[in-house]
């Protein structure tokens, strides 16, 4: 069975795994749970084995999956979501999750976890819930419900990670070099001040120049400081436009834009649509 929409991809078939790997890998965040047998796959420069009761998590911007071999008894289930949806989920976590960046970095380096029976049962339950929802074409709230299930799944994984990895104050400050520490601090500040949209403000708080901050962000993530700020802002405004019926001027006020006109200009610049057109497009 392979089911797909613009915001989720589910499969428990090898053909579905191949399709996602070959055509969607760069756009997807993937969780693959091995139920029987094993799969050997080339990832981040080496062959890794995902065995029974293991879950493999590929986060955005990590290496794509390479050649693979499977055992004859290999069984699995896979949930993949687009990067923009993952970013939207993580934006919510940024407000309450103190170590979200460290956890993402940890997942990049340690993508495989051996799950307990309870955690496996949770994963299977979420997979079946998503399957049922994808098959319900009459639901007017399908996307919202899918988002809630995806959010619950993400939080379950973060909760499981909490039990396995503890980030002490020293570890949170530990960095390969000063630029790594500056970047981590910048992303934490974004979580704490999501409505602060000036690179100059962050640079001043970090006691560095805006140019140097952007260079560090580009080096560490491939995105400049302004692109990071815009990404957080756009993720939030998309949330309000997709999931609420608040008037545009109210959304602008909540997000601390000077006025609705400036908010509309900002939305048009970064999404190609005005807020009203964005809402109408998502309703179709």
Indicate how many domains the architecture comprises. Answer: 3
* Biggest sheet features: 6 strands, antiparallel
Q: Give the termini separation.
A: 27 Å
CATH class (first level) name of the largest domain: Mainly Beta
Task: Work out the number of β strands.
Answer: 9
Strand-and-helix sequence, N→C?
Answer: EEHEEEEEEHHEHHHHHHHHHH
Shape: globular
Oligomer: single chain
Strand line-up in the sheet with most strands: 1-2-8-3-6-9
> If classified by CATH, what would the architecture of the largest domain be?
Sandwich
Question: Percent range for helical residues?
Answer: 55-70%
Radius of gyration: 20 Å
CATH topology of the largest domain: Jelly Rolls
Percent of residues in beta strands?
15-25%
Number of helices: 13
Give the integer mean of the pLDDT values: 80
Low-confidence stretches: 169-176
| Structure class | alpha+beta
């Amino acid at each position: 069975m392979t089911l797909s929409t613009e915001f989720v991809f589910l499969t428990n078939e090898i053909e579905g795994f191949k399709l996602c790997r070959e055509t969607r890998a760069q756009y997807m965040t993937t969780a693959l749970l091995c139920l029987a047998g094993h799969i050997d796959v080339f990832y981040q420069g080496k062959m890794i084995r995902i065995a029974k009761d293991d879950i493999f998590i590929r986060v955005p911007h990590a290496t794509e999956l390479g050649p693979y071999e499977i055992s004859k008894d290999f069984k699995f289930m896979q949930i993949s979501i687009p990067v923009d949806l993952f970013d939207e989920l993580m934006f919510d976590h940024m407000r309450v999750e103190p170590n979200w960046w460290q956890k993402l970095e940890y997942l990049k380096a340690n993508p495989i976890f051996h799950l307990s029976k309870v955690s496996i049962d949770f994963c299977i339950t979420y997979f079946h819930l998503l399957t049922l929802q994808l098959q319900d074409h009459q639901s007017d709230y399908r996307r919202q419900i899918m988002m809630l299930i995806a959010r619950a799944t993400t939080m379950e994984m973060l909760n499981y990670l909490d039990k396995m990895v503890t980030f002490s104050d020293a570890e949170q400050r530990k960095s390969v070099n000063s630029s790594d520490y500056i970047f981590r601090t910048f992303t934490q500040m974004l979580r704490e001040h999501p409505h602060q949209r000036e690179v100059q403000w962050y640079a001043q708080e970090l006691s560095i120049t805006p140019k140097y901050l952007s260079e560090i962000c580009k080096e560490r993530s491939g995105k400049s400081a302004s692109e990071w700020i815009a990404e957080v802002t756009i993720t939030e405004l998309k949330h309000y436009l997709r999931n609420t019926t608040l008037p545009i001027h109210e959304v602008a006020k909540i997000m601390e834009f000077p006025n609705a006109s400036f908010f509309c200009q900002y939305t048009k610049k970064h999404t190609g649509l005005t807020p009203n057109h964005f809402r109408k497009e998502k309703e179709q």
